[in-house]
Amino acid sequence: MLPFPLSAQQRYHVGVCDWMVLKRQKLGEFQLARDLGADGVELDMGGLGQRELFDNKLRDETEAHHFKAVADSLGVEVGAVAMSGFYAQDLTKRDNYMALVADCFDTMDRMGSAPVAFLPLGGCGNNWATDKQKRREVVKRLHDIGEAAKARGKRVGIDTPLDAKGNLKLLREIKSEGIAIFYKWQTIVENGWDIVRDMKALGAKNICAIHASNTDRVWLRNDSTIDVPAIKRTLDDMGWQGWLFVERSRDTSMVKNVKMNYGSNVHYLKEVFGIPYPSEVTLDSAGRDPEYVQTIISRSQKATDELGITWTPVGQNVLNIICNRYFRLNDIYAEQLSVDSLVLSDISSTISGNDAAKKLKSLNSQLSTLNIDSKLYRSHFGFEADLSKYLNPEQIETVKDVMTFHVVQVTYDAQLDMIPTLKEEEKQQILIWLKEARELAIDAESSKKKHEVFGKYKGRINNYLSRRGYDLTKEREAWYERLKGK
Length: 486
Description:
Layout: E1 12-17, H1 28-36, E2 40-44, H2 61-74, E3 77-82, H3 97-110, E4 116-120, H4 132-151, E5 155-159, H5 164-174, E6 179-184, H6 185-190, H7 195-202, E7 207-211, H8 228-238, E8 242-246, H9 258-273, H10 290-307, H11 313-350, H12 354-387, H13 393-403, H14 407-418, H15 424-441, H16 447-467, H17 472-485
Parallel strand pairs: 1-2, 1-8, 2-3, 3-4, 4-5, 5-6, 6-7, 7-8
């Protein structure tokens, strides 16, 4: 079954630009798009430079068929095909511009009749819109391209530095229904214009697709210069539908982390635009205090952050599994506390005599422990089984370490640093016990209780090392001196 097939009724679709996620015309772009939760990709034609034609491997029918088969198998669409080479190449100086465009149209057909081609005009220079001679040539060529596109049932979306008024004037000059605006939020923000007002002025019929991102600085969800919910409401009111492609909006503190950057932006756009996001695990948050739920989500996200899978479908499922684990622990301990309080109340009201009350209280405590242990046992192994659907054993270890504050590694490293002469079998035994402590600590009801579990095992380790002939007092004093020296 495909993970998230596009619905014919789905009004908005979210994709990523393959050249920006470092997968330009690479088969891996489709798996990456799926990993990010995107509906599709904006596939690039390849570099242009001083070549006669684009560096387009999909000109080969066999290669194109392979690409299409992989995309189909993963449920990922090619929503647009980009001629990004024209970011740097001047359209007015390419005598074979119609051959280049025809190559793009052919590729669109091979990849499933993508409806839109992207043509940036950045290579024409900064003044083409005001230079009358240059503008006439741009308009002439765009008219030719638009008519060719219309004849083949396509539209070419141009990227200009103009606002709505300027774009409408340009489109009237071009006089071709095959040309529209590939709307870019970044351009509007950089010029200090209002996206909502500008889109309304431009009109739905003149926007064929949207580059729904800003320049690299922060993720869209953290970008105060773009009101995405207001944009969504405006597009709804305009009756627009189509593709929103994430081009940039990377967090510059982690600019090379493709999955975190693009996963965050895809997830946010889908969240705001009401597009189903692929998640199999439901967050068990119903009936819980919203502030408590948010606290648990933030705590759980530390694990997916460390794994580098936050804002991906896999990361969302893992996040929900971890949150649900915390919720379940809370329920177990809260339920038992309620039972204990009720039983103790009954004891105090029906039994006289301190000895009898104490014995019954002790018996109840033992029964409570057995009841909790039984529930924790089932919950413990169910948690690991759920994680194993999405993570490998090493990643599951990471989740457990995050949930127990990395005490295993911190304590293990400290032991090795304190006693450099430890034998391999001693190191192994220490690690075994620390991981055993982690398995118990992960079921504890609070951070204090988790540390208490590790404290008991640290005592066991100290006793073990003492029996092996180590003078821990001297070892610790020598270690402190070494630390001071550092």
